[in-house]
Amino acid sequence: MFTDQLPLPLVLINLLGVTGIVVWHLQGRGRPTARLIVQILFFSAMTAVLILAGIMPHRSDDGHLQGAAAFLAASARVLWWTHLAWSLIGFVRIYIVLEKRPQEARLLQDLIVAVVYLGVALAVLGFVFKAPIGTLVATSGVVAIIFGLALQNTLGDVFSGIALTLGRPFAIGDWIALGDGTEGRVIENNWRSTFLLTGAHNVIVLPNSALAKVSLTNLSRPDETHQIALPVRLAADHPPERVEEVLRAALQGCGRIVHDPEPVVALKAIDAVAIEAELQFRVRSPAERTPGRNEVIARVHEQCRQSGLSLAPPAQAYLYTPPAEPELKPSSAGAL
Questions:
Q1: Across-strand partners of 228?
Q2: Spacing of C-alpha 87 from chain mean position
Q3: What is the predicted pLDDT for the residue at 258?
């Protein structure tokens, strides 16, 4: 219980709390471990003073105090709850840093921080200021329903962002392709939107709710190598073994493609005009598809020219010759 000497512990708790806040801000965000240690030290010192003085932070039994003493008692409890919140948040920050979580995990991190702050705010209102928590929760529920109806689209984006963070279909830096043909590298992911940098060097902003509804292909998993299939048609009068040998030599001379695994020459079909082949090879990343394809086409053209192989026209180029119309015999009237 409080005695005449209790204002001294209250002053000490307030000094520790304010000093801890100043030191916490002076350390900055670049030293999370040292920041957490300082938070724990100040929080432990404040807790020890509270216990030795017989002050319970979850019970407000200082109703007989007046003036400055009452203010010190309330501020001491508020500072204690604040340092408790910062210590818990510090543990969350350190855990994510030590585990080397991906950058997009900050959405889940921010959600945990918001829950901690909300819990501490309710504790301060209920235990320090004796506010009716039940009434506040009920009122906030009605307000939440109103805001939820007014912000349906925004909340949909937020919860979709949380679902994408937990599911982790992609990470910052991954190259993804959407079902509608959109492709790009993920450069940012926040509560509401995901930002893609396309091959044309444009930034596409996708709402998380729309991104969660479309099919998504991650081109960076299990690695960034990307396979390309290039069709080639050569004249049918060349032996298939010779066609395969020449095309394989062309692929082996390309430096922009991946040679492990080895590129493949697949003979697909043959007819009276052409041998259809498909060159299957990989490039190091989706961004190198165009340079890689260009090099392969140039090498195939050069290798075929040096080896005496001629290309065949596409199947659509076959000319259709309509049957000749029968000649009309002259009529008897014209013979007269």
A1: 281
A2: 28
A3: 94
What predicted TM-score, i.e. pTM, was given to this entire model?
0.54
Chain centroid offset of residue 243 CA = 45
Mean confidence (pLDDT) of the chain = 79
- Whether 36 contacts 89, CB under 8 Å: no
Q: What is the rounded CA–CA span in Å between residue 333 and residue 331?
A: 5
Question: What is the SS3 string spanning 21-62?
Answer: HHHHHHHCCCCHHHHHHHHHHHHHHHHHHHHHHCCCCCCCCC
Residue 217 makes CB contacts below 8 A (sequence gap 6+) with 176, 177, 178
Torsion on CA atoms 212, 215, 221, 225, rounded to nearest 10: -140
- C-alpha 206, offset from chain centre: 11
Q: What is the pLDDT of residues 273-303, one digit of tens each?
A: 999 999 999 999 888 999 999 999 999 999 9
- The full set of domain ranges for the chain reads 7-149, 166-218, 226-313
b/e burial code for range 40-59 (CB count within 10 A of at least 16 → b): eebbebbeebbeebebebee
What's the CATH code, domain 166-218? 2.30.30.60
Pair type for strands 216-218 and 274-283: unpaired
**Residue 165 class from Cβ within 10 Å (0-12 exposed, 13-18 middle, 19+ buried)?**
buried
CB-based contacts of 245: which residues, under 8 Å, 6+ apart? none
Residue 50's alpha-carbon distances to 54, 66, 127, 322, in angstroms, are 6, 19, 15, 103
Distance of alpha carbon 263 from alpha carbon 132, whole angstroms: 72
Asked if pLDDT for residue 212 goes beyond 50, the answer is yes
User: Cα-flanking dihedrals φ and ψ of residue 198, to 5°?
Assistant: -85, 170
Q: Tell me which CATH code domain 226-313 carries.
A: 3.30.70.100
CA torsion sign, 178 to 184 to 188 to 194? negative
Q: What is the dihedral of CA 303, 306, 310, 314, to 10 degrees?
A: 30
21-37 pLDDT, tens digit each: 888 778 777 777 777 78
